[in-house]
Design a protein that fits this description.
CATH architecture of the largest domain: 3-Layer(bba) Sandwich
Distance between the termini: 46 Å
CATH topology of the largest domain: FAD/NAD(P)-binding domain
Shape: globular
Number of helices: 12
Structural class: alpha/beta
Strand order of the largest sheet: 7-6-15-16-17-14-18
Length: about 400
């Protein structure tokens, strides 16, 4: 006999954790389960976002998840350095597990690989059968319906022998050799002698040469005058950057299964790859839909598909910028596009990260002589006919 739940999550990543928590807030009477193959939720990740990326009401319920909070951020390029007075926050896998596991009506079934998923239930590798409407948050899967570039990174949490003196996150330091596409180093000060340092590439390929990136991080630390006493932890990832695609084909490929979440549903900022704001917005929408009764599995799928399609339609401009970055700019000069962007007004930059770029913003971003060859820029405006709509 199957164990029954009001709502089931396959996979215990960021989107599953935030959605389960938000629904449990709205409906403490529901029985919710998250099924995760690993011993803990969230894997090994740090998720960051700008305070202006989410609505104030969303930010309030996200507060328990926030581990680090800074009042500003910095960027640095060969011809531009800037401090931006926009607060920046970070969430960790450890905090995600800690907060979600403390919610009384959420059961964490960790160490339980999923064998089969249906819209109305799960079968686990150990033979257990669970019933209930399913949301599938098991991470991105490849799709022939999307044309992609990649944001790939390796980060290390370093303990320095002496206080490092860094007070403000440096979210892009592009004053480094531009190898394998647009490259920058990302630095978060986590404590007086603790730094998170990440080597990041906007590249055409998804290969991740981990040992080379580790050496680059040590070389960067040496150039900053930081003596590394200890490497505390390491994380890496390869995130999709969508250039164009066939949204109908993408969703038709999901149609036989349960409603996808997060990266699996293509929900992330198209240019930056930031996924937490998108996960939080969908969590709000699902929690609202569950206010009186849990939607049937088919209705749950339709809710997520409709949300994702609205996001896709609203993000066409960002995919255009991606095509300009990946197809029009020479790989070693892609940084010029971002260097120019960070000379624009703070409010415009905040709206860009929040996915709320206005028509006037778009005109401002594209105004003037493009920082890429004009012919290549014009060619990038046209989606490939093979993939349908961009």
């Amino acid at each position: 006999m199957a164990d029954a739940y009001d709502l089931l999550f396959a996979g215990g990543g960021l989107s599953s954790g935030l959605t389960a928590y938000r629904v449990a807030q709205a409906r403490s009477d529901l029985s919710i389960a998250i099924v995760e193959a690993a011993p803990r939720l969230g894997g090994n990740h740090t998720w960051s976002f700008h305070a202006t990326d989410v609505a104030p009401g969303t930010l309030r319920w996200l507060t328990p998840f926030i581990v680090h909070d800074w009042p500003a951020q910095r960027v640095a390029f060969p011809r531009r350095e800037r401090r931006i007075e926009t607060p920046y926050r970070s969430v960790t896998s450890e905090r995600l597990h800690e907060v979600v596991s403390a919610v009384p009506n959420i059961s964490l079934l960790t160490g339980k690989p999923v064998k089969a998923v249906r819209r109305d239930g799960l079968t686990l590798e150990d033979g257990a059968v669970l019933s209930g409407p399913v949301l599938d948050g098991r991470g991105a899967r490849s799709s022939p319906h999307l044309s992609l570039g990649f944001q790939k990174f390796l980060g290390q949490e370093l303990r320095t022998a002496r206080p490092h003196g860094v007070e403000t996150p440096l979210i892009m330091d592009a004053r480094v050799p531009q190898t394998d596409g647009y490259r920058f180093v990302y630095v978060l000060p986590l404590g007086p002698d603790i730094l998170h340092v990440e080597d990041t590439y906007y590249a055409d390929g998804d290969d991740l040469p981990r040992e080379a990136l580790r050496e680059e991080i040590m070389a960067y630390a040496h150039r900053q005058g930081w003596e590394v006493a200890e490497i505390l932890r390491e994380e890496d990832g390869v995130l999709p950057i969508v250039l164009e695609g066939d949204i109908d084909g993408f969703w038709d490929a999901h149609r036989a299964g349960p409603a996808p979440l997060g990266l699996r549903a293509g929900l992330f900022h198209p240019v930056t790859g930031y996924s937490l704001p998108s996960a939080a917005r969908l969590a709000d929408e699902i929690a609202e839909a569950c206010g009186s009764a849990i939607p049937a599995p088919g209705a749950l799928f339709e809710l997520v598909e409709d949300h994702a399609r609205r996001q896709w339609e609203a993000q066409g401009f960002y995919r255009l910028l991606n095509r300009m970055l990946f197809r029009a700019a020479k790989p070693d000069l892609r940084y010029v596009v971002l260097q120019r962007f960070y000379g624009l007004p703070r409010a415009l930059i905040e709206r860009f990260y929040a996915g709320e770029t206005t028509a006037a913003d778009k005109a401002r971003i594209l105004a003037g002589k493009p920082p890429v060859p004009l012919g290549a820029a014009l060619r990038s405006l046209r989606p490939q006919a093979l993939l349908g709509q961009g």
